[in-house]
Design brief:
Chain B: One of its GO terms (cellular component) is plasma membrane. The structure holds two protein chains of two kinds. Chain A is an alpha+beta fold. Helix content of chain A is 49%, strand content 12%. Chain A has a single domain, classed as Cytochrome-c3 Hydrogenase, chain B. In chain A, the strands form three sheets. In chain A, strands 1-2-3 form a three-stranded antiparallel beta sheet, with no helix packed on it. In chain A, strands 6-7-8 form a three-stranded antiparallel beta sheet. A two-stranded antiparallel sheet of chain A has the order 4-5. In chain A, strand 7 and strand 8 (359-365) form a beta hairpin. Chain B folds into two domains: 9-125, Beta Polymerase, domain 2 (2-Layer Sandwich), CATH 3.30.460.80; 135-168, no CATH class. Classes of the chains: A alpha+beta, B alpha/beta.
Chain lengths: 403, 178
């Protein structure tokens, strides 16, 4: 009886109390070590406070003590689902400072790898979002195809994940023998597989109910919050750096920028699935158009000589080779901001050079870091259970969020 | 390089005159230097002017030019979605560095400013929630400053850190600004 009196309250006054709920950092659906402190009103999320930094490795500080070539492995570990894109973004920034451009063949190889990386990054979210919502099958199939991409990466660079394949002024090696038939085979198989993923969830009423109309971000909110990439395109903003500020050879390629108007979780998922189709088209065009030629710039002060015999026969080449290995190359004084369309959005590198062989300051504009702020809008007045869908659909990679 | 139409600078020079210094166009980005007290006004102007429409804030970052003086710099990268222009605004700051927050102009500035505060100790006045973002609460010092050792300072948990004096301005580091 006493309990009843405690619960009874004066008329007209609500007696709800906000509950603080801790989600993560060790939680399978936070896609890494992300901790969310949620303020709940009943079952609704009133406020979300993401705590990040569990994976902070100080990439930017470390880069200040590394030579430019040594930074490539560091960039691999930003968005670890698609390292070739990160390599490419960094290489482009340094090349702009040096005032050089990679040979055409190298540019094609880089774009090809970046697009493979885009597929590999999108594949994970294609499978992981349904998994978070209880549909496990899609992930298993997505991982099967991702394995094929990993094999291709291994064939090109010898590494499955952290490829470090880009170099300033080109790529490390030429494409290996037998690579083209393998990737053509992949391009043939893959579009049908995309159809499979769509069929797996398209008519799945649970998945649709839990993603359609959930976590809506309007175009204005998206721009205000700095979202980029598929997250912003799903809100109807037609912006893709590949098309609008073409870098490398993207201006020679024909591809469609996928946008959707709904801005909900389903639209974000759908955008990524359809982008994979465009990536396959880009890869096919790259294979058709790729010319023969050098894969590395012929500039002894920046890149190792392609013909290793030179080092054995010529004194200058030997000295330059030693210099390059021991000290790295010097980059003229100046600053550059260079952005590419990484799978997650605008990946920018701001590099300040003081004329030495190490960057004076390197800032990474990590798309996931900014995209995660979309939570502030997307989680508003949603059920707690929908937080998982919202978080999954924003597709943050904690390696990139925490740098 | 990739941007064909160069930025039309006349609205900026007309409005702000000598206060905003044009640093020229390099690698596809126009650079301007602005005094810190004008940053909010300038950002709002750039965002709302119909001919410019810099509606997307790409990035805010801190730079430490130690031992040069004034030591710090806040660098803003803006993008105009309709015009496809990029612009960089650089704000030189003294020590202790302090600049008004642009969170009123773009909400995305929230985490960028928190990061610059965490790493460089740049105070953004008017930021509603200026807490550390990467380092833990109670961490002393600002790790990306040039005078902060790469491996941190030696203590119980960090036997490989540098010997040396405790970090500068511990009071600033731990104080939670409302």
């Amino acid at each position: 009886m006493t309990e009843v009196t405690e619960l009874s309250r004066p008329e007209g006054q609500s007696h709800t109390r906000e509950v603080l709920l801790n989600l993560g950092p060790q939680h399978p659906s936070t896609h890494g070590v992300l901790r969310l402190v949620l303020e709940l009103e009943g079952e609704y999320v009133a406020r979300v406070d993401p705590h990040i930094g569990y994976l902070h490795r100080g990439t930017e500080k470390l880069a200040e003590s590394f030579s430019y070539t040594q930074i490539f492995p560091l960039t691999d570990r930003l968005d670890y689902l698609c390292p070739p894109s990160n390599n490419l973004a960094f290489a482009l920034a340094v090349e702009k400072l040096l005032g050089i451009q990679a040979p055409i063949r190298a540019q094609y190889i880089r774009v090809l790898m970046a697009e493979l990386a885009r597929i590999s990054g999108h594949l994970l979210i294609t499978g992981a979002l349904p998994l978070d919502l209880g549909a496990m099958t899609a992930l298993l199939y997505a991982m099967r195809e991702r394995e094929m991409i990993m094999d291709l990466f291994e064939m090109i660079s010898g590494a499955r994940m952290h490829t470090s394949f880009c170099r300033v002024g080109g790529v490390r090696e030429d494409l290996p023998d037998g690579f083209v038939p393998r990737i053509k085979e992949f391009c043939e198989i893959f579009p049908n597989r995309i159809r499979d993923y769509e069929r797996l969830v398209e008519n799945n009423r649970v998945f649709l109910k839990r993603t359609q109309g959930i976590g809506v971000i309007t175009a204005d909110d998206g721009i205000d919050l700095g979202l980029s990439g598929p997250n912003l395109r799903a809100s109807g903003v037609d912006w893709d750096i590949r098309r609008d500020e073409p870098y490398e050879i993207y201006d020679r390629l024909d591809f469609k920028v996928i946008t959707r108007d709904e801005g909900d979780c389903y639209a974000r998922w759908r955008c990524r699935v359809e982008e994979m189709r465009e990536s396959i088209r880009i890869i096919e065009q790259c294979l058709d158009q790729m010319p023969e030629g050098p894969f590395q710039i012929d500039m002894p002060t920046v890149a190792f000589p392609v013909d290793k015999n030179k080092v054995h026969c010529s004194m200058e080449a030997l000295i330059q080779h030693f210099d390059l290995s021991a000290y790295g190359f010097k980059v003229p004084k100046g600053e550059v901001y260079s952005a590419i369309e990484s799978p997650k959005g605008e990946l920018g590198f701001y590099i300040v050079s003081d004329g030495s062989a190490k960057p004076f300051r390197m800032k990474v504009r990590a798309p996931s870091f900014v995209n995660l702020q979309g939570l502030f809008v997307a989680s508003n007045a949603n059920y707690l259970a929908d937080m998982i869908a919202v978080l999954g659909s924003l597709d943050p990679v904690m390696g990139e969020v925490d740098k | 390089m990739s941007i064909e139409a160069p930025l039309n600078r006349t609205p900026i020079t007309e409005r702000f005159g000598e206060a905003i210094v044009d640093l020229g166009f390099a690698h596809g980005v126009h650079s301007f230097a602005a005094p810190p007290e004008m940053i909010v006004e300038l950002c709002r102007f750039l965002k709302e002017h119909p001919a410019l429409q810099f509606n997307f804030l790409s990035d805010i970052c801190g730079v430490d030019h130690y031992p040069e003086m004034p030591r710090f710099e806040a660098v803003y990268h803006l993008y105009s979605l309709p015009n496809k222009w990029r612009i960089r605004i650089k704000c030189r700051l003294g020590d202790p560095p302090c600049v008004p927050s642009v969170m009123g102009v773009w909400r995305t500035a929230n985490w960028h400013e928190r990061e610059a505060w965490d790493m460089y100790g740049i105070r953004f006045d008017g930021h509603p929630d200026l807490r550390r973002i990467y380092m833990w609460e109670g961490f002393e010092g600002f790790p990306q400053r040039k005078d902060f050792p790469l491996r941190g300072y030696k203590d119980k948990l960090n036997p490989f850190g540098a010997e040396g004096p405790p970090p500068t301005q511990p009071d600033l580091a731990t104080r939670n600004i409302p």
